[in-house]
Amino acid sequence: MDWSVVSGVASTVIALAALIFSLQSFRKQQQWIDRNARANVRPFFWLKLQGYAELKSVILRNDGVGPAVITKAEFKKNGRSAIRLIDLIDLDIPLWEHYTTLSRRRVVPPQGEVVLLRQSLNHLVDHGVDAQRGLEILARLHAERRGIEIYIEFEDIYGNALEPYREVI
């Protein structure tokens, strides 16, 4: 028996086993990295409310590390449903300063925000409303937005549906 042949075959078998082990380890490591990379791009919604005497706003923020793709948005109050927040505000406001409809497939980037509603005294005064009347409108707006339920379905960048965002103002 030639020991050099046995030694060569044994070395080849060991090298082949090491190669197979390395490839399997690499594949598992790549799967783990992919799984964790997907988990690390999750959006995170929260509502920012501004209730100053001269400024009222409702802002949807994405403080997650990944973009959010909105698939459905709905606002509810007292049995009424709307796709725009202002449709649930029962006030005679001559001209809204800013409002947004959350359309399907709208993307909210990481650290981004969407102003759902904004009204300021300066805007009202600029459009012919007396300052005292403007303050009254803003105070009523503050009261009117209470009890509005916000419901948003959304996905991450990979198309994975996430738990819907629900908030009552």
Protein architecture, described:
There is one protein chain. The chain has two domains: 1-40; 45-168. The protein is rod-shaped. With 169 residues, the protein is of the alpha+beta class. The chain has three helices and nine strands; from the N terminus they run H-E-E-E-E-E-E-E-H-H-E-E. The mean pLDDT is 89.
Work out the helicity level. 25-40%
Give the C-alpha Rg: 28 Å
Oligomer: single chain
The beta-strand count equals: 9
List the domain count as a whole number.
2
The overall average pLDDT, rounded, is 89
Task: Name the shape in a single word.
Answer: rod-shaped
The biggest beta sheet reads:
5 strands, antiparallel
How large is the count of helical segments? Answer: 3
Q: Which stretches of 5+ consecutive residues score pLDDT under 50?
A: none
H/E series: HEEEEEEEHHEE
Structural class by sheet pairing and helices: alpha+beta
Task: Report the end-to-end length measured between terminal Cα atoms.
Answer: 86 Å
Strand content: 25-35%
Describe how the helices and strands are arranged:
Layout: H1 3-39, E1 45-52, E2 55-62, E3 68-77, E4 80-82, E5 98-99, E6 107-108, E7 112-120, H2 121-126, H3 131-144, E8 149-155, E9 165-168
Antiparallel strand pairs: 1-2, 2-7, 3-4, 3-6, 3-8, 5-7, 8-9
Summarize the structure.
Helices cover 34% and strands 31% of the residues. The protein has 169 residues and is an alpha+beta fold. The mean pLDDT is 89.
List the defining traits of the structure above.
single chain, 169 residues, alpha+beta, rod-shaped
